[in-house]
């Protein structure tokens, strides 16, 4: 039996802790990549033996963000494009939490692009999962900044007239500490990538190429399986120029650890050096007795 499967069976209670039992939740469309992404997140947490009380899930708005009703645990479901400041604030206030932020490509590269830039620059210790389905899915398939030029979408029936960003190239230009790419067509690969992101200690940017067969009809899991390849074994992830070369390829899309800068100091280490304090912000929160206010309600 494979080693991971043995650990998953041994830790079944951890996995079950994240599993919603509510039969009334709305589900995603058939064939949607959000299912295997959420499955892989739960497996990665189980393999790392991280119980739900030690984890905070921060969700943006979108089909991706609707993962918040389909998982048990501490969750914040924020405004569109604003998940990263929420995640960073929660992590700074309570550094012992493992903070996972998830957002769509529309939120991340349009409404929230300023937050992304500063999350990478500050190296907040957060694992960030980009659900890269190359469209604004929840609002029914409009082109996003990651939709390839020429794609016929809702609100662009003649084809998207504008070139897309390459998300990896954008982030590599910001001096990140961790950049990886994986795909919703490969659960095992996502699990390994998320485990690496959980152990990173700084801002782990993980681009998940995600199938959305409803609005990006040609980008199915079958299509991805023909267009993805592992990063060549001789790739040196500490070499930024090699990373840029890997990132620019879109056929194939390379899966794996594209870049890693172990020298970068994360935000918490940087501020702790300045504060010279031996307390965490969460230790400094005062306790107030609100019982008299509650009695008046
Ligand atoms: C500030 C703001 N702008 C726009 C919207 C409307 N809106 C909600 S979800 C969404 C699309 C989400 O697309 P994406 O972020 O890629 O997530 P996906 O649904 O594809 O997972 C939009 C435009 C909003 N709620 N708030
Ligand atoms: S519209 Fe796309 S992203 Fe949204 S649930 Fe359906 S397949 Fe998934
Ligand atoms: Mg999207």
Describe this protein's structure:
The structure is a single chain. The protein is α/β, with parallel strands linked by helices. It has a single domain (28-296), classed as 3-Layer(aba) Sandwich (Rossmann fold). Helices cover 35% and strands 15% of the residues. An eight-stranded mixed beta sheet has the order 2-1-3-4-6-5-8-7, sandwiched between helices. Strand 7 (228-230), helix 10 (240-248) and strand 8 form a beta-alpha-beta unit. Helix 3 (34-47) packs across helix 8. It is globular. The N and C termini lie far apart (58 Å). The relative contact order is 0.13. The model has no long low-confidence stretch (mean pLDDT 95).
Please provide the ordered H/E string of secondary-structure elements: HHHEEHEHHEHEHEHEHEHH
Helix content: 25-40%
What distance lies between the first and last C-alpha atoms, to the nearest angstrom? 58 Å
Number of helices: 12
pLDDT average, as an integer? Answer: 95
Strand content: 15-25%
Largest sheet: 8 strands, mixed
Structural class: alpha/beta
Q: What's the level 1 CATH class?
A: Alpha Beta
Main sheet strand line-up: 2-1-3-4-6-5-8-7
Shape assignment: globular
Low-confidence stretches are none
Which ligands appear in the coordinates? thiamine diphosphate, iron/sulfur cluster, magnesium ion
CATH topology: Rossmann fold
- The name of the CATH architecture is 3-Layer(aba) Sandwich
Overall domain count: 1
CATH superfamily: Thiamin diphosphate (ThDP)-binding fold, Pyr/PP domains
The radius of gyration is: 20 Å
